[in-house]
Amino acid sequence: MKSVVGMVVSNKMQKSVVVAVDRLFHHKIYNRYVKRTSKFMAHDENNQCNIGDRVRLDPSRPLSKRKNWVVAEILKKARIYIPPSVDNAAASSTKTKTLAS
């Protein structure tokens, strides 16, 4: 097996992530390119991966029943939206009220 590149779709487990890997192949009958997605469970030792990250997976020995891959590197981090906290929202609303007065 060789290393594959995919997108993290789940990181709800401890030290594990689910990575979706897309591949294109030519369908002889339809004479079109078809996209297929495979999901692999991979070992993420330091819990660094987030949903949306682009990662490279390397094959390894079986680590559990379904986990045969290790996250080799994070190629691109996802941009994560952090909503404003309640304290910041309250502070900004009082500023606008004082400015309007």
TrEMBL record:
GO BP terms, alphabetized: translation
Annotated protein name in UniProt: Small ribosomal subunit protein uS17c
InterPro entries hit by this protein: NA-bd_OB-fold, Ribosomal_uS17, Ribosomal_uS17_bact/chlr
Record family assignment: Belongs to the universal ribosomal protein uS17 family.
HAMAP family on file: Ribosomal_uS17_B (MF_01345_B)
Stored PANTHER family: 40S RIBOSOMAL PROTEIN S11 FAMILY MEMBER (PTHR10744), SMALL RIBOSOMAL SUBUNIT PROTEIN US17M (PTHR10744:SF1)
Cellular component GO terms, alphabetical: ribonucleoprotein complex; ribosome
Described function: One of the primary rRNA binding proteins, it binds specifically to the 5'-end of 16S ribosomal RNA.
Keywords for this protein: Ribonucleoprotein, Ribosomal protein, RNA-binding, rRNA-binding
Pfam families per UniProt: Ribosomal_S17
A GO term for molecular function: rRNA binding
Species this protein is from: Acer yangbiense
